[in-house]
């Protein structure tokens, strides 16, 4: 959230002599930060090449076809763009873009999760007590 | 100023103690002190019969004001501001003015048309015709200017920007988002928000957010409803045309078909596309396959 505010403040040109405390409201666009946008672009690439990748992988990993074919498939798969590899995507928090400590089924970070759960915004989530 | 004001006075009055009471002029009584001062000032500015100008101005302003209610007129006035109780001869003091018009409500329309810009223009033009002397400043202010260039719609050669001007009338305006929003407005006008939780849950069910009863595991997957299961399972027919009858390629493709037949998540089209993809791949590697002796 702080990052966002700083980014928005940078937009105001200081040459105008306006006090940079004009924007007190949080700027909420679709993407929290650039890392999120990059991750989205990678995911798009993954979807684009998903079928091709799947077929090449099956040819690579099987033991039925001759080795030369498998080697050829390996060469082909390495020629594909790097961002088509699903391994390059990160499961970021949808609200804060936190890369680690995310609760996967909810797609949010543990901090946001806790906040929402305490305010009764998560269906079926309750404070543990036993 | 003082002398002129005296003409507007009702009378000078002396109370018992001999000092002059505050005298209220007719204009002040009708319109207020500020207006009376303004009228006097205006009369001073303009040339002509000052008394007549003052009288006219008072008349016009009074006609525009709302008529004073009877009970206000008859209300007991404070002694300090009281009007003298002697019978006042209005017609004598305010030369020819009809003061009783306070009670009458002049129709607003007449005032508007008479004193609007158009009315003033007409009046000034009439004055022009009557050859009365008008001040240069007034003329500039009120008389309309003559147009310097006369524009005709069909005098010059057309530019030819539009090849078919008649079709423009039929053409739809390019406002797709406007249309969408208009449709949305119409829908919202008819819809109302849910009045209770039951209606809310009904709307959720219709949107697909809630399961429908009786529970159907394939809810939301209407695409493949009409496709028989045999098409999902028996995929050998797609291998008939191109795949060799024996060899590692056949072995591999049969494994692929078994795998796809067990996969419930793909649609039939997607499975066909996968098999086609393999076909294209092997077609591209036919030279290599022949060298290896796999084909």
From TrEMBL, chain A:
<dbReference type="GO" id="GO:0005829">
    <property type="term" value="C:cytosol"/>
</dbReference>
<dbReference type="GO" id="GO:0005791">
    <property type="term" value="C:rough endoplasmic reticulum"/>
</dbReference>
<dbReference type="GO" id="GO:0006412">
    <property type="term" value="P:translation"/>
</dbReference>
<dbReference type="Pfam" id="PF00253">
    <property type="entry name" value="Ribosomal_S14"/>
</dbReference>
<protein>
    <recommendedName>
        <fullName>Small ribosomal subunit protein uS14</fullName>
    </recommendedName>
</protein>
<dbReference type="GO" id="GO:0003735">
    <property type="term" value="F:structural constituent of ribosome"/>
</dbReference>
<keyword id="KW-0689">Ribosomal protein</keyword>
<dbReference type="InterPro" id="IPR001209">
    <property type="entry name" value="Ribosomal_uS14"/>
</dbReference>
<dbReference type="GO" id="GO:0005763">
    <property type="term" value="C:mitochondrial small ribosomal subunit"/>
</dbReference>
<comment type="similarity">
    <text>Belongs to the universal ribosomal protein uS14 family.</text>
</comment>
<keyword id="KW-0687">Ribonucleoprotein</keyword>
<dbReference type="InterPro" id="IPR018271">
    <property type="entry name" value="Ribosomal_uS14_CS"/>
</dbReference>
<comment type="subunit">
    <text>Component of the 40S small ribosomal subunit.</text>
</comment>
Automatic annotation (TrEMBL), chain B:
<dbReference type="Pfam" id="PF15433">
    <property type="entry name" value="MRP-S31"/>
</dbReference>
<dbReference type="InterPro" id="IPR026299">
    <property type="entry name" value="MRP-S31"/>
</dbReference>
<dbReference type="GO" id="GO:0005763">
    <property type="term" value="C:mitochondrial small ribosomal subunit"/>
</dbReference>
<dbReference type="GO" id="GO:0003735">
    <property type="term" value="F:structural constituent of ribosome"/>
</dbReference>
<keyword id="KW-0809">Transit peptide</keyword>
<comment type="similarity">
    <text>Belongs to the mitochondrion-specific ribosomal protein mS31 family.</text>
</comment>
<keyword id="KW-0689">Ribosomal protein</keyword>
<protein>
    <recommendedName>
        <fullName>Small ribosomal subunit protein mS31</fullName>
    </recommendedName>
</protein>
<keyword id="KW-0687">Ribonucleoprotein</keyword>
<keyword id="KW-0496">Mitochondrion</keyword>
């Amino acid at each position: 959230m702080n990052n966002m505010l700083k980014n928005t403040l940078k937009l105001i040109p200081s040459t105008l002599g306006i006090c940079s405390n004009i924007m007190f409201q949080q700027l909420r666009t679709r993407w929290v930060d650039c890392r999120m946008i990059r991750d989205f672009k990678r995911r798009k690439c993954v979807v684009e090449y998903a079928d091709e990748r799947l077929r090449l992988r099956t040819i690579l990993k099987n033991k039925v076809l001759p080795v030369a074919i498998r080697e050829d498939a390996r060469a082909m798969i390495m020629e594909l763009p790097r961002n088509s590899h699903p391994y390059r995507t990160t499961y970021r928090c949808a609200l804060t873009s936190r890369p680690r400590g995310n609760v996967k089924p909810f797609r949010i970070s543990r901090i946001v999760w806790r906040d929402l759960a305490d305010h009764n915004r998560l269906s079926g989530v309750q404070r543990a007590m036993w | 100023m003082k002398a002129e004001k005296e003409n507007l006075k009702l009378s000078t009055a002396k109370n018992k103690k001999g000092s002059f009471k505050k005298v209220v002029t007719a204009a002040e009584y009708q319109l207020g002190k500020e207006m009376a001062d303004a009228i006097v000032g205006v009369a001073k500015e303009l040339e002509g019969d000052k008394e007549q100008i003052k009288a006219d101005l008072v008349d016009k302003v009074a006609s525009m004001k709302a008529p004073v209610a009877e009970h206000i007129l008859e209300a007991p006035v404070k002694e300090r501001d009281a009007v003298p109780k002697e019978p006042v001869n209005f017609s004598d003091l305010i030369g020819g003015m009809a003061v009783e018009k306070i009670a009458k409500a002049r129709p607003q329309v007449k005032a508007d048309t008479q004193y609007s810009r158009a009315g003033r223009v007409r009046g000034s033009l009439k004055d022009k015709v009557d050859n009365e002397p008008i001040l240069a400043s007034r003329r500039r202010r009120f008389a309309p200017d003559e147009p310097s260039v006369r524009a005709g719609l069909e005098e010059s050669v057309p530019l030819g920007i539009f090849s078919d001007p008649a079709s423009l009338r039929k053409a739809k305006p390019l406002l797709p988002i406007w249309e969408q929003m208009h449709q949305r407005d119409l829908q919202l006008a008819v819809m109302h928000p849910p009045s209770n939780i039951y209606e809310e849950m009904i709307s959720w069910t219709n949107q697909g957010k809630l399961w429908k009863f009786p529970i159907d595991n394939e809810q939301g997957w209407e695409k493949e409803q009409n496709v028989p299961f045999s098409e999902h399972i028996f995929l050998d027919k797609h291998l008939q045309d191109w795949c060799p009858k024996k060899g590692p390629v056949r072995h591999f493709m049969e494994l692929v078909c078994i795998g796809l037949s067990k996969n419930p998540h793909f649609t039939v089209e997607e499975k066909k596309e996968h098999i086609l993809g393999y076909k294209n791949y092997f077609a591209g590697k036919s030279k290599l396959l022949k060298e290896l002796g796999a084909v």
